[in-house]
Amino acid sequence: MSDSGINKVVLAYSGGLDTSVILKWLEDTYGCEVVTFTADVGQGEEVEPARAKAEAMGIKEIYIEDLREEFARDYVFPMFRANAIYEGEYLLGTSIARPLIAKRLVEIARETGADAISHGATGKGNDQVRFELGAYALMPDVKIIAPWREWDLLSRKKLMDYAEQHGIDVDFARAGKKSPYSMDANLLHISYEGDILEDPWAEPEEEMWRWSVSPEAAPDEPTYLILSYEKGDIVAIDGKAMSASEVMEYLNRVGGDNGVGRDDIVENRYVGMKSRGCYETPAGTIMLKAHRAMESLTLDRNAAHQKDELMPRYAEIIYNGYWWSPEREMLQAAIDQTQQVVNGDVRVKLYKGNVMIAGRRSESNSLFDESIATFEDDEGAYDQKDAEGFIKLNALRLRVAARRRT
Questions:
Q1: 239, 228 in Cβ contact below 8 A?
Q2: Quick one: which H or E segment has residue 35?
Q3: Which pick of 186, 262, 296, 328 has the fewest CB atoms within 10 Å?
């Protein structure tokens, strides 16, 4: 039994400098055994090297898991049924990955008999909140160790010095040209923070972007896609059935090739500060536009408007880390109910950074009636004289108020 009362910790481990230092720091500070957990949520980098790095540091219990399909199917797709977007711009790419990672951390803690979990999120960011709220919601008495809130290794130089002093292999941290940006990637997005982006006036360097060509360099011919929906989720592209993760991987590739999905945002963090970040979200940008087009054809007006009123709250819940909360589950149930009729096809046109709707159809659930909407003779389907009474009834309160003012 260690003096701290903590004998085993499950660490969210990437294999990079920060979490490798954390691994050793946990062993030294708490005198505990460390279990590493590395999740593949579609970051586009090989995760297996994390196993070799953990083994080199003497770790016996190593978890490396491919969570791409679960992430897309059970987290991203439900969120897009809500058309969720934070502060009108952010498609919640980092936010939505954290509840899944938190879930697996506490599950592994139970499986291995660990006393605590640990993560590498800093004390200034949102991720510490998201990881920990998720963990507490699923394992109320879990102990959480957040090294960035405890240690004094608050710079890259201090981390490098600690690594060298304790024999941690830092070749991977020194090798080649390291990006000056703090980056996070998964199937939904890649984010960039730090370096020149800390000046909100500075334009991002073209070399920074990794997933997309610039709109100026995108092809001169547009790309058309037909996205097929069932109950609000894309199930096929151009007639080819795809799983949720396959849909996102395909749209990221095609969208990126057409310069789609770049964004430059100053957002309000839950912890209180403003933060500037840049994002590439090709799949999410296409999915949001197409889903709204599908809903425009199939959702009742008031149901659609009610959804739009709920959406900012739903997005804020996810951004702030409350995925596992009763309020999110309540809203999700309401949102999913509306999606029973969101079936059909949307044709999108991708061209030099733009996503345009080129058509939508639904054989079974379209509420668009050409015989009523036409500007030609509707043969009695709609009596235009009825509009006069409708307008006068709705104008009654306005007319009464106007008389009182005169």
A1: yes
A2: strand 33-40
A3: 296
The CA-based dihedral angle spanning residues 162, 164, 165, 167, taken in that order and rounded to the nearest 10 degrees: 120
3-state SS class at 240: strand
CA atoms of 311 and 294, how far apart (whole Å): 17
Return all residues near 151 (Cβ < 8 A) that are at least 6 apart.
25, 29
Pick the CATH number of 184-299+342-361 from 3.40.50.1010, 3.90.226.10, 3.90.800.10, 3.90.1260.10: 3.90.1260.10
Catalytic residue, candidates 40, 81, 95, 98: 98
Extended strands (E) in 55-123? 62-66, 116-118
Is pTM beyond 0.90 here? yes
Check if 369 is active-site: no
Catalytic residue status for 152: no
Least confident range of 156-160, 240-244, 344-348:
156-160
Q: Is 127 a catalytic residue?
A: yes
Question: Is 399 marked active-site?
Answer: no
Average of per-residue pLDDT values in the chain:
94
**The pLDDT value given to residue 178:** 59
CATH of domain 8-71+91-178: 3.40.50.620
**Per annotation, catalytic residue among 40, 115, 127, 345:** 127
